[in-house]
Amino acid sequence: MNKRRISKGFWIWGQFDQQSSIEIDAIKEKSNNNLRGPEFESHITLSGPLLEVNKDTKKILKQISNEHHPFSIYSEGLDIKDMFFQSLFLKITKDKKLLTFKKIIDDRLNLKATEYFPHISLFYGNVTKEIKIKIMKELDAPKELTLSSICIVDVDEEINLWKVIERFTLNNEECSIRIVIKKA
User: Fold this and answer.
1) Which class is domain 8-169?
2) H-only helix segments in the chain
3) Is a pLDDT exceeding 80 seen at residue 174?
């Protein structure tokens, strides 16, 4: 099986409510001040790649966003790998809610399920393990974050381009029940 990384395409990201974004961006900024990686919006990759995006793709994602409420995801703490795009990150728990949400997106976009490693990157780059461990000691990982939107992202890793082309806010409406009493 070919496991070559696809570096150009469209990906579906999950993004966060304001409080979660503040927490993630604070540790991301602190790590990047020391490590000097490329700029990218805070996100968790949910699905992809798509080779093209059309109005049907957008309609499907809009529909998914209308059907789902914001939900919590949980951090297992900071971690590192010897990979450019998974260099320093928050490891995210593979819980039922997140995996079900990902499966819905994959199924509706007709994408084949692949091995999923949920994480929120804080730094893209190649630096030594020792440097990353030193930076990790200075960071406080949030425990719970709220996923509040999904977006389509145009990715071209060859030129460090990650451009959000459309964002869909998850349904924030409270569920209410309306009771109608009919007169006999």
Assistant:
1) alpha beta
2) 18-35, 55-67, 96-108, 129-136
3) no
